[in-house]
Write a structure and sequence with these properties.
Length: about 650
């Protein structure tokens, strides 16, 4: 079975009752490339401006299915190319109109898919794996996102104490105890060398052909063979061989493989953190170089704290490389070129000193990672291989932001696992996140099913609901995740998504005792971010990009929720602690002495001339502003009149790029 990029030209079905589009032409382009034994396809791939999808080549198959998590689809055989199977376009009636399916296998549905071909008896005859990636995504980014999903779940599942590892101030994560790992690997080294130099062996009896003159010991079978075949040149004789392929070596191999996997996961996740922190530091240093006011001391403190975490992560990168080099050297030894085996405590591990010490030390390394139950492991694996990996990753990043801002996320892990164990999906999941600082409460929803004002189905990816203490009214904010590389597309495609997955939610989500305040898109296009698309209603609709190692926009989104929508100006956007503001003429200044974070609540200086009846609190930050910052200064453009302090007007297009009128 092989997978190809194909182009299928279709037309609407002649029969009005038929849901399947008719195939007119099918072109086979190229076989898909492979990464680590699985095919890789980029969504929205084009050939001569024709949108491509995945075709599966299999002449002998009678049926081919594609599994996506707990769902599956059936492919159809091409009439023009009978060796090719594909997913046709489908249609259905919605509100009296035919709606054509936007998503087809390999065209614009991302994730990890398993393709299975069946014979006439409906028995599987071939399988293949394919990963469909967003257009601007690399396979390495996809793997990093998988590792971050696993790491973020572990943060929720494990309650590591600070003594167990280094705590990273900026993320408030207690990290893997790498110093202990280094120490144990140093202890392990001489014992492993003893095994490598003098491995235990097992005796194996085999029969081999030998020339009669070279046979020194004749067994009964060899004597009989010589008697029956006196002129045969070579006779089969029994020999005893020494073999180092012990099951204990397979067990050691398996434990080393697990350690290597752990090292690679944490190394790459921490490298992503390092990229994000360096990006933040660069912006703050630029702001600091242009700042001449009394905030300089605090801004320098903030930079020094970020540098501290960067230093920790850089040192840990060196440590990870050292540990990885050591483990890979063990794995390259000939006696460990065997199939990994599940560990168990054998007689050899309990009797021979070098094997006993090796087993004990590898066990101790294994215990550095707290254990989770089998059904929890299944859940994490399912989420890592989900067709909706980006949505799951974003959900965990949102939860981590709430956790960092001191909202109680202790129920998240258990409720997610229970939901998946019960339903084999997490769609419809929700969780209560009360403030640990008595600053109200959140409910977060993942893919809730809602009814709009026209009774149509609404299904935003995330719904964030907030209520202040002692209030009866909940604020509601929707967020929808998209994979499209919008800057590569016509503006009409972007407008369509903003209307359907943003403005429509803003207009139609109507729940008792709630008020809808904002709707946003989060996507992977680094060239597109706009925090205030419809300036007639401040911050009502927006879009922004978030990627591994580039989480700044997510922090901006959370800050905007806290400081503008929830009016919790006093909460530090870095640590979530409550800070007392200081009145300074017409503005309020907030300084978190512990974090060195500074933010200002001000007014637009042009309001009396341009929007006297429309006023807002104009929030300003050293960096990561949701109002467009003026050259890293303590100045931003007003989201109403788009003027800065010097009354220069900013004009942006839909993608958030500056335009000259």
């Amino acid at each position: 079975m092989k997978l190809y990029e194909i182009y299928v030209r279709e037309q609407e079905p002649v029969n009005r009752t038929s849901p399947i589009y008719l195939e007119l032409e099918t072109k086979v382009i190229d076989e898909l490339p492979k990464e680590k034994h699985q095919y890789v396809m980029k969504e929205y791939s084009r050939e001569n401006n024709q949108l491509l999808q995945i075709g599966v080549e299999s002449l002998e198959a009678k049926r081919i299915s594609v599994a996506m998590g707990n769902k599956s689809i059936e492919l159809v055989r091409s009439k023009n190319r009978p060796e090719i199977w594909y997913e046709p376009s489908k249609r259905w009636i919605e509100n009296g109109f035919f709606i054509r399916s936007e998503s087809r296998f390999g065209m614009n549905a991302c994730g990890n898919f398993e393709i299975t071909a069946f014979d006439e008896s409906d028995k599987p005859i071939a399988k293949q794996q394919v990963v469909v990636l967003p257009k601007h995504f690399t396979f390495q980014q996809y793997q990093l996102m998988q590792k971050e999903v696993k790491s973020l779940f572990e943060v929720l599942a494990f309650n590591r104490t600070e003594e167990a590892g280094t705590i990273l101030r900026e993320s408030q994560i207690v990290m893997y105890p790498i110093r202990r790992l280094k120490s144990l690997l140093i202890e392990l080294d001489p014992w492993m060398n003893k095994i490598i130099e003098n491995p235990m062996e097992q005796l194996e009896h085999v029969r081999t052909k030998k020339v009669q003159s070279q046979i020194k010991r004749w067994d009964s079978q060899a004597i009989i063979e010589k008697t029956i075949y006196p002129y045969r040149e070579k006779i089969s004789v029994r020999e005893t061989l020494k073999d180092t392929n012990l099951m204990e070596h397979g067990m050691i191999r398996g434990m080393l493989d697990m350690i290597k996997s752990r090292i690679l996961q944490d190394k790459e996740v921490e490298e992503s953190m390092l990229v994000n922190l360096n990006s933040d530091l660069i912006k703050r240093i630029e702001a600091l170089s242009k700042d001449n006011n009394s905030f300089k001391k605090e801004m320098e403190l903030r930079c020094s704290l970020i540098r501290r975490d960067i230093g920790i992560l850089e040192q840990r990168q060196e440590d990870w490389i050292g540990c990885l080099t050591k483990v890979e050297a063990f794995l390259e030894e000939p006696i460990f070129q065997v199939t990994p085996i599940e560990k168990e405590f054998t007689h050899l591990f309990s009797s021979e000193p070098s094997y006993m010490a090796t087993f004990d030390l590898l066990e101790e390394i294994d215990l550095l990672t707290p254990k989770i139950q089998l059904h929890e492991q299944d859940f994490i694996e399912a989420m890592m291989n989900s067709p909706h990996l980006y949505e799951v990753w974003m959900l965990l990043q949102l939860i981590h932001q709430f956790r960092r801002l001191q909202f109680d996320c202790s129920q998240v892990w258990e409720s997610l696992v229970e939901k998946y164990t019960r339903e084999k999906k997490i769609n419809g999941w929700n969780c209560h996140l009360p403030s640990l600082q008595n600053q109200g409460e959140f409910w977060i929803y993942y893919e809730p099913n809602l009814r709009g004002e026209d009774n149509g189905l609404l299904k935003p990816d995330y719904l964030i609901c907030y209520r202040r203490s002692k209030s009866d009214i909940w604020q509601v904010h929707s967020l929808d995740a998209k994979y499209k590389p919008y800057s590569d597309f016509a503006v009409e495609i972007f407008e369509y998504d903003l209307e359907r997955s943003c403005r429509r939610y803003y207009r139609q989500i109507n729940i008792d005792n709630t008020t809808m305040r904002s709707a946003a898109l989060v996507h992977i296009d680094k060239q597109s971010t706009h925090w205030n698309i419809d300036s007639d209603s401040i911050y009502k609709t927006s879009h922004f990009s978030v990627l591994p190692g580039e989480l700044g926009n997510l922090e901006i989104y959370m800050t905007r929720l806290l400081h503008y929508f929830f009016e919790l100006e006093e909460i530090c956007p870095s640590c979530g602690k409550v800070v007392k503001g200081v009145k300074d003429k017409h503005k309020m200044v907030y300084i978190c002495a512990e974090e060195g974070e500074v933010w200002v609540s001000n007014k637009c200086g042009s309001r009396w001339d341009y929007h006297r009846t429309q006023d807002i609190r104009l929030m300003k930050y050293a960096s990561l502003n949701y109002n467009n910052q003026v050259q890293n200064n303590w100045d931003v453009h007003c989201p109403i009149c788009w003027r800065d302090y010097n009354r220069n007007i900013l004009n942006l297009n839909l993608f958030g790029n500056r335009i000259n009128l």
